[in-house]
Batch of 3 targets.
Target 1
Amino acid sequence: MGQLLERGRRARREEDKRRRRRDLLDAGWALLQTVPYPEVTMAGVAERAGLAKGTAFLYYPTKESLFLALAAERLDAWFADLDAALEAERTCDASRLGRLVCDTVRRHPGLTRLLAVLHGVLERNVDLSTARAFKRGLLDHVTRTGALLERACPFLAPAAGGAGGAVLLLRVHALVVGMAQLADPPPVVAAVLGEPGMEVFRVDPGAMLEDTVVALVRGLEAGRSGP
């Protein structure tokens, strides 16, 4: 009986830990939708989650580690969406593939805000084990989704002289990061961009991303079939 009670207590403690982690992640995500990342604090996250600041640091030792965990979750969801779309599509040409990728990005709008700070901020204040776990999880996704991309568009397969599905994913990632930063300027810069003559700097990230990804994929296709 004593062992059963102890196992029950351990199970409840583990469930409490999972719930607190979930509450902190949900609170961080909610705050990121209302203020820029630099303005989010662990104290604010803890308060929104109904926890003490010290308790929040027991689960996530830095703000970066919390938002890196969020980035992993949101990337998991995006890759699952893209994989399902590729499985359903089976085969597609360059234009269709570019639009398909961009459609899935649009269905996960908050992800771009995380990607904009991923490399320059989130990965710079985490420990080795956290960084390794994040990158290995990302590697699994890139490997699987890259293979699905190569199946859908054979011209991407390295054996066919293509760049590879994984390489395409990295290029798309770079485009998303750059455009997310262009589309979300600081308030003082946004005020300047609202002035006459500054129209060229006003970015519609959705339209620009789709045009650029389609052009990229068409270029890869043309390069494979070159003269």
Target 2
Amino acid sequence: MRRWVVEQMLSGETMIGTFVQTPSASVCEVLCACGYDVLVPDAEHAPLSPADIQALVAAADTAGAPALVRIAGHEGSQIQYALDAGAAGIIVPRINTAEEARAVVSRATYPPHGERGSGPGRAALFGLDRSAAVDEARANTLIALQIESAEAVKNVDAILDVPGFGMAFVGPNDLSLSLGSPPEEELRAIIDDVLGRARARNLLTGILASTPDLVAHYRTAGVSLILTGTDLGLLAKGAKTCIDAVKP
């Protein structure tokens, strides 16, 4: 599953995903049945425990989609929980400097190039296949660093030059807030510049795009991973559409 998600994006295919904030295997099953390519358990903006994350990663695997976990912060324990659960990779929020990027890469990478511990978690079949799990993780774990602040934009070249990670993921909402809510055209120009700089370094790219027009724009631009929102957002929109149609 890990190899599949990385290879598909490296081949130039755009993958469509959504954040998952509900700790429910049924939600993963429904989203996969609807056609999402990737599911992203969102521990940054939802109260997901390590046990919740593992259950969602397993549910996504069973339903046929790789899981990339957006962790809550830069801490080594957050990274360890997600990768030990068998996630295909992690999306790490609020990367503002090259020093932070290097620290994350080290925590997510096994020695001798990093400091990740080798534990008997789900990724290693609970200790039954630890050696193969380490080899698989070294070859195919996707580390995505989230660019979402004015400071990150200022330091973007230094961040993108850090070795060992595979994707630059732009968070447009927080980026807009950090930049003082500039006009949409100005924000899009900044985002396009960041994505272009990442592609010039042969990095995969990702972004949140909440409308079909934005999805089309970024698909045409060759963005590797486009997330369309959250499971709860989809529920809210569907429920609102239904109630508006049937209630006086």
Target 3
Amino acid sequence: MKLACQEGLAPGETLAQRFESIEKAGYLGVEFGGSGIWERVGEIRNAFASSSLEPATICAGFGGCPLDSTLAERQKADDDIKRILTAGGEIGVVGMVLVPVFGPPRIGDLSPWKTAVELEKAMLVDLMGRWAEHAVEAGTLVILEPLNGYETHLIKKLSDAVEICEQVNNPAGAKMMADFFHMELEEPDVATAIKEAGDWICHVHLADHPRILPGYGNSDFKPGFAALKEIGYDGYMALECGVPDPDKQAALTRTVEFLRSQM
């Protein structure tokens, strides 16, 4: 398992300075925000060319909502997701992290034919299938992320994401991820959830409670890390959290040391 840091967590005015900070702290990869990343491909590739760091993932950053009730919002999301996937392939990331909807359903309930959730899942399987094909062509993955019930009503447990991935049935283009912050809120047993998701997991997010750097809260990562090892996971685990220490460089370094002790 390899540690990655989101670009925005690192101190530095320029991308090169942020890369230097991330590398100095002991991380091996970088996760980027997806907003407008298709305009940064050259800059990012140049930064990697002069660094030992590797591209990890792209986290969301698309406009619109794939499961919105309006065509304009759905089309905006679809266009952006495809552009991000194309850029991700050019950069060489593992994949693009995707949350299909935040909050409550945006489409109507058509019971007794189908509930809103049943409609959303059918739409999501179709969309994920299309994005998976695009991702394969680009040389990357679309990665479905379960959240927690405070942030979404739809994909909350790892098993929810597995259900979608199995129906899409294109592991070369569509997989899922596990986020320790969300899992601690939703999963009765984090380790069991990870083991049951198995090979569908291709990325991991790390955060301590209350969504701060690991080692600054009270989360026990050891059972989850042991489960990841058991399923043979050897990919990136990227920080997605706040930095509670004003000395960001020291904090990021301390977190690496903590996570290594947990692994």
